[in-house]
């Protein structure tokens, strides 16, 4: 759902648009998520103050989950079909077509950003672009939670929709630190039937 300069936004948007129904059927509800992921997002959201953006919200299920956790959540996605589905299914919430390389939010205006598998199509050369934008819009002390494909090395693979990337936790953590975040927790999970998973929680550094 994310765009990247080595995978132009138009390519990613068109690829997901063409399979939006299939994607929504497979992954568009919380029943498709792992219990430990729900627990992690819930505990992360509980520590936030202020509005939270679901960057790469897809059909909106995580945005709705965040709202149920008690935060003021909204979602953006490159894919118009996803945004329309989210608006229909969760009419009380705000969803917009948007690019999180250029978030339509004021500097330091958000309490947090959830980026759940929405950076997987950004190349290692370009990932600092959205991370820097997240750092711009998150207030000092605010939170970032990134979910991603985990691997022993940074590498590229043929994702079902379009080219994606795996990251070792340590190397993606370094990217977050470079962007201005302090890593607070890291998580990995492996199991039958899915690719190795990683998650990183981080806090926007407070400059003195």
From TrEMBL:
The keyword Ribonucleoprotein does not apply. Residues 52-142 form the Methyltransferase domain. It holds the Pfam family Methyltransf_25. GO terms for biological process: methylation. SUPFAM superfamilies: S-adenosyl-L-methionine-dependent methyltransferases. GO terms for molecular function: methyltransferase activity. Its EC number is 2.1.1.-. It comes from the Bacteria. Keywords: Methyltransferase, Transferase. Gene3D superfamilies: Vaccinia Virus protein VP39. PANTHER family: METHYLTRANSFERASE (PTHR42912). This is Putative methyltransferase.
